[in-house]
Design brief:
Helices cover 25% and strands 27% of the residues. It has ten helices and 18 strands. It has helices at residues 43-49, 96-99, 109-115, 172-184, 199-208, 223-231, 243-251, 266-275, 317-329, 347-355; strands at 3-10, 17-24, 31-40, 59-60, 65-72, 84-87, 126-128, 131-133, 146-150, 154-156, 191-195, 215-220, 236-239, 256-261, 276-284, 306-309, 339-343, 361-365. Strands 3, 5, 6, 9, 10, 17 and 18 form a seven-stranded mixed β-sheet that branches. A six-stranded parallel β-sheet has the order 13-12-11-14-15-16, with helices on both faces. Strands 4-1-2-7-8 form a five-stranded antiparallel β-sheet, with no helix packed on it. The longest helix has 13 residues, at 172-184.
Length: 366
């Protein structure tokens, strides 16, 4: 039987979120119904809602959910009703990258998560008044009081940790942390530069502070975010306009060993590449509109510089997210410093505050 719930629906590109009664399909063999407790608001949600990505609208977004399992399909084995779960991206589980522990690079990642709006078999998950809506966003569409969730999006977590404090782990936080731990892997004496002190960038700063990196440099245009970055572990903070000179002073002219680019601004990306030292690596996390290009000095790359694109921290979620939950519980990953909570009914206020830079990581609570 379909399950009635209330969701925040985007009617068309550029339209606000509108609360509406919708119906969820009955869970399939590898799906679960989750009662949402909290869900993070991410720039990817805003990008899709604006119409910048070809997701089918009207539709239900949301991809940083956390909640309690209410029902499971007959083939689900990893969770049971009553379990606390964080929701993350989905994947096919059978392609080479999934089998190799890199599900963020699943062969069917784009249609399953970002632009398809339906299950892999083409069937819909959400409807309204008999009309199908775009759903299955990151296998969850968690801007709703209940969500129909793909089994591979479900991560069972410690029930002692408040779900509102860990909802952002499913996307933004694991992206920033994974950029540092899974790609840069700093060693003693390393200089790590984080371009942009939003939720992803500050997650990267916190992650770098848990490594042997000697210099952790946060770069942004806003002084209050740089102050927070220093409190979260940055050893240096730099205004974006002064990056080249400041980094030369910090590294004695050697340049950065690792750079995490979170802004999606190609001018900042070029600055980051130029800031690398010999054999340095820049991780591209920020996503500008499809088709965006950046000009690079090719000869400047010949000193062994690497530019690496990254999706969702290249994380294997079943291992990575519980580890982050433990760090949050122990106070070693102070994620609460990034979070501002809003009632689900105030989703548009959360969007406005995030767009205006007043909130780093809005979390909607139910």
């Amino acid at each position: 039987m379909p399950i009635r719930t209330r969701a925040a629906v985007v009617e068309s590109g550029g339209a606000p979120f509108t609360l509406s009664d919708v119906e969820l399909d009955a869970p399939g063999p590898h799906e679960a119904v989750v009662r949402m407790v909290a869900t993070g608001l991410c720039h990817t949600d805003l990008g899709v809602a604006s119409g910048a990505l070809p997701f089918p609208l009207p539709g239900v977004l949301g991809h940083e959910g956390a909640g309690v399992v209410e029902a499971v399909g007959p083939a689900v084995t990893g969770v049971a009703p009553g379990d606390h779960v964080v929701l993350s991206f989905t994947s096919c589980g059978g392609c080479r990258n999934c089998r190799g522990g890199h599900p963020a690079y699943c062969a069917t990642w784009l249609p399953l998560n970002l632009i398809g709006g339906r299950r892999a078999d083409g069937t819909g998950t959400i409807s309204r008044g008999g009309e199908e809506l775009g759903g299955h966003f990151f296998g969850q569409s968690s801007f709703a009081e209940r969500a129909l969730v793909d089994e591979r999006s479900l991560v069972k977590v410690d029930p002692e940790v408040p779900l509102a404090s860990i909802a952002p782990l499913g996307c933004g936080v694991q992206t920033g942390v994974g950029a540092v731990w899974n790609v840069l892997k700093p060693v003693t004496g390393s200089t790590v530069v984080v371009l942009g002190a939003g939720a992803v960038g500050l997650s990267a700063v916190m992650a770098a502070a848990l490594t042997p990196a000697t210099n952790i440099v946060a770069v942004d245009r806003f002084g209050e975010r740089l102050s927070l970055a220093r409190e979260l572990g940055a050893t240096h903070t730099v205004d974006a306009a002064d990056l080249a000179e400041a980094l030369a002073d910090i590294t004695g002219g050697l340049g950065a060993d690792g750079v995490v680019e979170t802004t999606g601004n190609v001018g900042v990306l070029r600055q980051g590449v130029d800031a690398l030292g010999a054999r340095g690596t820049l991780v591209v996390v920020g996503a500008p509109p499809f088709g965006t290009e950046v000009a690079l000095d090719v000869n400047g790359l010949l000193g062994g510089k690497r530019i690496v694109g990254l999706t969702l921290g290249d994380a294997e979620t079943q291992e990575f997210i519980p580890a982050l939950v433990r760090l949050v519980k122990e106070g070693r990953l102070p994620l609460h410093r990034l979070i501002s909570t809003y009632p689900f009914t105030d989703i548009d206020q959360a969007v406005r505050d995030m767009s205006a830079g007043k909130a780093i990581k809005p979390v909607l609570t139910f």
